[in-house]
Design brief:
The complex is a heterodimer. By secondary structure, chain A is mainly beta. Chain A is built from four helices and 16 strands. Helices cover about 10% and strands about 55% of the residues of chain A. Chain A is globular. In chain A, about 35% of the residues are buried. By secondary structure, chain B is an all-alpha fold. Chain B has four helices and no strands. Chain B starts with 7 loop residues before the first helix and ends with a helix. Classes of the chains: A mainly beta, B mainly alpha. At the A-B interface, helix 1, strand 4, strand 5, helix 2 and strand 6 of A face helix 1, helix 2, helix 3 and helix 4 of B.
């Protein structure tokens, strides 16, 4: 039977949709292993959490004071629902070129505001604005009190702008030595880094975690649903060798806007045989990264927060954990770029707070 | 010629139908025995095993991004674990064991 190109396209799309719908139906129809009803003393309570940070960046001799307040609201409802939200208030203050007092803009953004429904042990349904699950940095490592180095990776803006739409996600054990996690999403619009125009896209991420060697590997994909329908893809890995306090992570991302990778190792000096009291609270970090230009120009790069030229960067840092959730940070990096090489120094303090919004009883 | 993405509506309808079916079969009953006061009855040997497994799961999952935190009251940990279950896509079993470990 002869089919025109358009008919073939429509037929293929229908079959893909049927396959996706079938997959969703299968996942959602899995036997519902119930979530245990907790006694009242263990019922989840609403929480206000978040981070405060005061950071000082000196890039190419230019001083920038960066202050951040990132509140996170967690509102559990019943046994299976969670409303969660994170806002970001960031002030970046610089001294004018001719001298004078520090001044600068105060940025306010809503990173995510989502409703999660835990449908069964394998599927959580999310709707609202959510962090786009592309790679691992944006979703897991972005908060200032979690990240090992304060400067963002160069490729962070690639395919990670917050999404407005719906998402299915979950994690389950394939067998005792492999856990699988996944996320698939449809976004009606995305809130761009520094004012990127909204766009529609679909995408997903899949990862395999091996609990024995503590190794995770995964891949991400995103397709823009307008104009040229560009694809972006990425790979990520994380490895924590069980016998040494090393945390090794890496990401690669490729899109029409550019491509690149970063690899980072963070080593906690908890096994040191001297100055144990101090050194077990200390972490040393190193990161290497590279960015390659894409199909967009330097202006668009700048709007997205990308370097605007082929760039290599090496960063080193030290974190000192004063107590749970409070750490002092210091770092040095050097960027090599056709736009100019420069040093970047960082120092500051980051604090994570956690407050119950209800009665929690005695600990 | 490229066509606009037209299947999103169908996808959402099928998804909602599947969700409705699932919701009708998804019961949230207790998975462990409780006494009259609502306290979960777990014998000490089983509790020890769960504690060890919970610590292993904590090290395998949570410590990839977090240093071992102080322990929080159970009601706070329940919220934190629900948040992390979604954020870090940890498995249901891991979440239960970590919650047990972190609240013991």
């Amino acid at each position: 039977m002869h089919l025109s190109g358009r008919s073939r396209l429509l037929q293929r799309r229908k079959s893909v949709l049927r396959a996706v719908a079938g997959l969703c139906f299968s996942l959602l129809s899995l036997p519902g292993v119930s979530v245990a009803q907790a006694p009242d003393t263990e019922k989840p309570v609403p929480i206000l959490s978040g981070a405060l940070a005061y950071l000082n960046f000196v890039s190419g001799g230019q001083n920038l004071i960066d202050t951040q307040f990132n509140p996170v609201l967690l509102l559990p409802l019943g046994d299976n629902w969670l409303v969660e939200s994170r806002g970001a208030f960031e002030g970046q203050f610089q001294r004018p070129p001719g001298g004078g007092t520090y001044a600068g803009p105060l940025a306010k953004t809503l990173d995510y505001f989502q409703v999660d429904y835990i449908a069964n042990p394998h599927v959580t349904i999310t709707a609202g604005r959510f962090l786009t699950p592309f790679g691992i940095f944006n979703e897991r490592l972005y908060p200032v009190w979690i990240r090992a180095l304060q400067p963002d990776p160069l490729i962070l803006p690639l395919a990670t702008a917050s999404s407005d739409g719906a998402m299915l996600r979950g994690g389950f054990s394939v067998n005792p030595s492999i856990n699988m996690n996944y996320a698939v999403y449809v976004s009606a619009a995305s809130i761009g880094v520094k004012g990127l125009t909204a766009e529609r896209h679909v995408g997903g991420r899949m990862g395999f975690f091996f609990p024995g060697p503590r190794l995770e590997v995964g891949t991400s994909w995103q397709k823009t649903l307008q104009d040229d329908r560009k694809n972006a893809f990425g790979f990520h890995m994380g490895w924590q060798p069980p016998k040494i306090p090393l945390n090794l992570r890496s990401e690669y991302a490729h899109s029409y806007q550019g491509s690149g990778y970063w690899i980072e190792g963070a080593y906690r000096l908890s096994q040191a045989r001297f100055w144990q009291k101090r050194l077990r609270r200390t972490e040393v970090v190193a990161r290497a990264q590279q960015f390659f230009n894409g199909e967009i120009g330097a202006n668009a790069d700048s709007q997205l927060g990308l370097p605007g030229a082929e760039t290599r960067e090496a960063d080193f840092g030290v974190n000192y954990f004063l107590r749970d959730g409070l750490k002092g940070v210091a770092g040095y990096g050097h960027q090599f770029s056709s736009l100019g090489n420069f040093n970047q120094w960082t120092c500051g303090i980051a604090y994570r707070f956690l407050l119950p919004l209800g009665h929690v009883g005695a600990q | 010629m490229r066509t606009k993405f037209a299947g999103t509506g169908t996808f959402v309808i099928v998804l909602l139908a599947a969700l409705a079916l699932e919701s009708s079969t998804f019961a949230s009953g207790p998975s462990s025995a409780k006494d009259a006061s609502g306290t979960v009855l777990v014998n000490s040997a089983k509790a020890d095993i769960m504690r060890v497994q919970g610590e292993q799961r904590f090290r395998a999952n949570c410590s990839r991004c977090h240093a071992a935190p102080q322990k929080f009251p159970p009601r706070m940990m329940a919220t934190i674990l629900r948040h992390m279950r979604v954020r870090a896509t940890i498995t249901d079993e891991d979440m239960r064991l970590i919650l047990f470990y972190m609240t013991e």
